[in-house]
Amino acid sequence: MGAFEELRAYFSRTHEVCAVYLYGRYPAGATYPDTDIELGLVFPPETPEEEVGVFLERLGEDNPLGPAQGVLLPSVLNQHVLPVVYEMLGWGQLLVENDRDAHARFLRESQARIEAARDKLLEEAREVLQQARRLGEGIPEFRTRPGQPLRMLDPLRVGWRLGRLLASVAVIEVATREVEETAKDPERVNQVVGWFSNGAGAATGIAKAMLTTYELERPPRRWQVFLPLADLGLVTTEHALWLGAVVETRWNLMTAESIASPERALLLLRTYLHALLQFARVASWVTEMPTVGEAARLH
Question: What is the C-alpha to C-alpha distance for residues 6 and 90, in angstroms, rounded to an integer?
Fold first, then answer.
């Protein structure tokens, strides 16, 4: 069986969760060691947090993928931020439903929470989109391929990630002005790496939102996630490759036991700031600018 059949079989036997979502469209065929597989786990609303924690620990030991390759990235939707819940329910695929009634209760409660927070989330998205659009001069140059109309992104999906991306770039820019001084302080180095991971993860999340908006398959390798955006014309191929390097550097730093040369690592992170800012600008201009209030009902 392939990775997704293995997951479906595993979670169908695992009745602690009432439903499991798969985020993103994946190509047919084999997965790879660096294929990120994102799952949204739904527990019955009354499940104690301790039981959820025990389940996640066991999940890490059980190897739900079996012999298939990939990196499992599970999120507990009961505990996640509302934009992620909104995104997973709207653009994810239902992989397994073990308890229809409990799943339906979760859906009703989540939709009520999203509606209650919608105006606030849209206002926050509006502010960060305006901030990103003010970067640089004018609208960045991008043009979708012939026959492909521009599809605007949902601000509820992009706004909070764009805020993380801009904040991360600002912190890294300040911290790496004096690389030699920062490199002498291991705690500051770890903080900068953490901010970089945060910003790079946000950029990757926006790219995945773009792929689902255009109903495109996610490339099988982690670093390739921005390449379809170059095919669309939203970024250049060179820009997509820079962003692919950002993704790989993030993963290497996250999985490394230590940083052999902090100074070189900090210099490398600084070189990525332009690519991240340019992507932030593009994302802001291909995301719908929300209005707030009773008229703001985008979906």
Answer: 24
Amino acid at the residue 3: A
Query: Residue 102 to residues 29, 42, 80, 87, 135: CA-CA distances in angstroms?
Result: 33, 9, 18, 20, 45
C-alpha to C-alpha distance for 82 and 91, rounded to whole angstroms: 14
- 15-24, pLDDT tens digit by residue? 899 999 999 9
| pLDDT category of residue 293 using cuts at 50, 70 and 90 | low
Q: How confident is the model at residue 145 (pLDDT cuts 50, 70, 90)?
A: confident
- 147-182 per-position pLDDT tens digit: 888 999 999 999 999 999 999 999 999 999 999 999
Domains in the chain with CATH codes? 3-110 (3.30.460.10), 155-285 (1.20.120)
Which amino acid is it at 123?
Answer: E
Across the strands, what pairs with 217?
25
User: What whole-number distance in Å separates Cα of residue 126 and Cα of residue 123?
Assistant: 5
Q: Is 53 exposed, middle or buried (0-12, 13-18, 19+ CB in 10 A)?
A: exposed
Place of tokens 């392939």: 2
Is residue 140 classed as helix, strand or coil in its secondary structure? Answer: coil
**Cβ-count burial 177-206 (b if 16+ within 10 Å, e if not):** eebeebbeeeeebeebbebbbbbbbbbbbb
Contact 128, 159 (CB under 8 A): yes
The 10 Å Cβ neighbour count of residue 109 is 12
How far is residue 87's CA from residue 101's CA, in Å, rounded to a whole number? 21
